[in-house]
Specification:
The radius of gyration is 16 Å and the shape is globular. The two termini are 23 Å apart. The strands form four sheets. A six-stranded mixed beta sheet has the order 1-12-11-10-6-9. A two-stranded antiparallel ribbon has the order 2-3. The chain has a two-stranded antiparallel sheet with strand order 4-5. The protein is α+β, with helices and mostly antiparallel strands and 193 residues long.
Length: 193
């Protein structure tokens, strides 16, 4: 569970300007790419020859369309800024809805993200897309009561669930990746450093 109020504030403050529009999903993808750069063991795949850790972060992003669930890939996401990711996602979504994605755009992902928050789903467990090591499922950011310093506060809580292939990555390394992602989502300025 991540406290998402700072992320939501960051989006409201910076992502609604005409010249710099981005969504919460775009911010999440940016954070995932930054966390994978710091924890490359989660950006890996399995083959009969062994484990391959990928240098580049190629995010396969689940998009629902009339043609079914598609996972177009944002290539080299680790080297892109938030606005580049937002622009690419917007284009991929539009082309997915029209059935205009090429096979090449749907292949080569090194890590998958499935955000179900826009459907009001609080938590999900996504199925790994072989040969990738991991897939991250994101839930909605809902106000929930929290206890902090013996006081009850209300915070926007967003669930992030990582499914991991333990042939490739163990639970400790997967947890380090999630802890880094949690930091970036709860304190967005950390991912900009």
């Amino acid at each position: 569970d991540c406290e998402a109020d700072s992320l939501l504030d960051f989006k409201r403050e910076h992502g609604n300007r005409e010249a710099s529009r981005f969504s919460i999903n775009d911010l999440i993808l940016y954070a995932v790419a930054r966390a994978l750069k710091k924890h490359p063991a989660a950006n890996a795949s399995w083959s009969n020859e062994g484990i391959r850790i990928h240098r580049n972060v190629n995010l396969a992003v689940a998009i629902s369309s009339e043609h079914g669930l598609l996972t177009p890939v944002i290539r080299n996401a680790e080297s892109k800024g938030i606005l580049a990711i937002a622009s690419e996602m917007k284009e991929l979504k539009e082309r997915a809805k029209k059935g205009k994605l090429s096979k090449g755009e749907l292949m080569g992902g090194t890590f998958s993200v499935s955000n179900l928050g826009m459907y009001g789903i609080q938590q999900a467990v996504a199925v790994i897309n072989p040969p990738q090591a991991c897939v991250l499922a994101i839930g909605s950011a809902d106000k929930k009561p929290l206890s902090r310093n013996n006081k009850i506060i209300h915070a926007s809580i967003m669930n992030c669930t990582l499914s991991a292939d333990h042939r490739i990555i163990d639970g400790a390394e997967a947890s380090r990746f999630l802890a880094c992602l949690k930091l970036f989502l709860e304190e967005p300025l950390h991912m900009l450093a």
